[in-house]
From TrEMBL:
The lineage of its organism: Eukaryota, Metazoa, Chordata, Craniata, Vertebrata. This is DNA-directed RNA polymerases I and III subunit RPAC1. Pfam families: RNA_pol_A_bac (PF01000), RNA_pol_L (PF01193). It comes from Oncorhynchus kisutch (Coho salmon). One of its GO terms (biological process) is DNA-templated transcription. GO terms for molecular function: DNA binding; DNA-directed RNA polymerase activity; protein dimerization activity.
Length: 353
């Protein structure tokens, strides 16, 4: 019986090393993936498609117009990180590439203004456009969107004499992204009649003018990826974290239970009344930020075990508004599939040689 118990304990310890990242007081254990073939006697870690299909899943937790939170379970960190990097840098969008400044009498230098214009998200589906050919300076209706910004500040004739408020004294003194107007090229007016092409947000401040100052600018938007410039990145943030796992190793009661609750993020630990005693209970480990505050308390640190599930990734995707977040995830998956296919083709060509 002792031998059986010892083997069970050993197996349990091996499973923990394989599947959990342990958060200690001064270190983090099991940070590296170790479940590769032949590393653990008695474990079959050879990659199997049926096994992967059985364990892998994606669960959508929350989604709205600009943000998406979903769980990606049963995948290695390398693939999860590749997916994150593709979202940041390899899903294409349309952005201002060339700025033709015909008149700028504002106090903002041409270069600064052009940079500000380039970073404004443009509401246009990049899947409907082609990449502009290298060396093509003009662009065509299939690869270029043209925007115009023409505005002049004047005095407001209806302003009161004793007013000091610029909003009342001047007209068009604040230049916003909503002043950028789409100028269709070729047959774009017919093809994209319902597309409502323009800046995603109309309230982005571009410049401030005073009477007599004006801007006359033409912008060319092209298709690109964040790998070339951050202005093409379709997401504001794309990140993941491992699912936290909190285990109470002993019953925590009374004042210690209340203190334990305060050591974690709201909603992680709750206290319940059991037979007149206040007892701590883990309610939702997912909400924890893994601050390890509890490990600063000598009388509590041995009562709790902190870990993260190695193959359970909580993804957060926040779109800039150009494409819906679920569309971005779908496009990122397509890019990853294309990369895999290209790699397989390279392998086949190498074998043939």
């Amino acid at each position: 019986m002792k031998t059986g118990a010892k083997m069970a304990a050993t197996m349990s310890n091996v499973d923990e090393i394989r599947n959990r990242v342990i958060l200690g007081e001064f270190d983090i254990k099991n940070v590296h993936t170790t479940d590769y073939p032949g590393n653990y006697p008695g474990y079959d870690d050879t990659w199997n498609l049926q096994k992967f299909q059985k364990n892998f899943r994606i669960d959508v937790v929350q989604m709205d117009e600009t943000s998406l939170e979903f769980d990606m379970v049963g995948i290695d960190a390398a693939l999860a990180n590749a997916f994150r990097r593709i979202l940041l840098a390899e899903v294409p969008t349309m952005a201002v590439e060339k700025v033709l400044i015909y008149n700028n009498t504002s106090i903002i230098q041409d270069e600064i203004l052009a940079h500000r214009l380039g970073l404004i998200p443009i509401k246009a589906d990049p899947r409907l456009f082609e990449y502009r050919s290298a060396g093509d300076e003009e662009g065509t209706e299939i690869d270029t969107i043209q925007l115009q910004l023409k505005i002049k500040c004047t005095r407001n004739p209806r302003a009161t004499k004793d007013s000091a408020d610029p909003r009342e004294l001047y007209l068009n003194h604040m230049v916003y992204s909503k002043d950028m107007k789409w100028a269709p090229i070729g047959n774009q007016a017919d093809v994209f009649a319902d597309a409502n092409i323009g800046p995603v947000h109309g309230d982005i401040l571009l410049a401030q003018l005073r009477p007599g100052q004006e801007l006359d600018i033409v912008m060319h938007c092209v298709k690109g990826i964040g790998q070339d410039h951050a202005k093409f990145s379709p997401v504001a943030t794309a990140s993941y974290r491992l699912l936290p796992e909190i285990t109470l190793m002993e019953t925590v009661e009374g004042e210690k239970a209340e203190r334990l609750k305060r050591c974690f993020s709201p909603g992680v630990i709750e206290v319940e009344n059991h037979g007149g005693k206040v007892v701590a209970k883990v309610v939702n480990s997912r909400l924890d930020t893994c601050s390890r505050e509890v490990l600063r308390h000598d009388d509590l640190k041995n009562a709790v075990k902190l870990a993260r599930v190695r193959d359970h990734f909580i993804f957060s995707v926040e779109s800039t508004g150009i494409l819906a977040p679920d569309v971005l995830v779908t496009e990122a998956i397509k890019v990853l599939m294309t990369k895999c296919q290209r790699f397989l083709c390279e392998l086949d060509s190498t074998e043939m040689e």
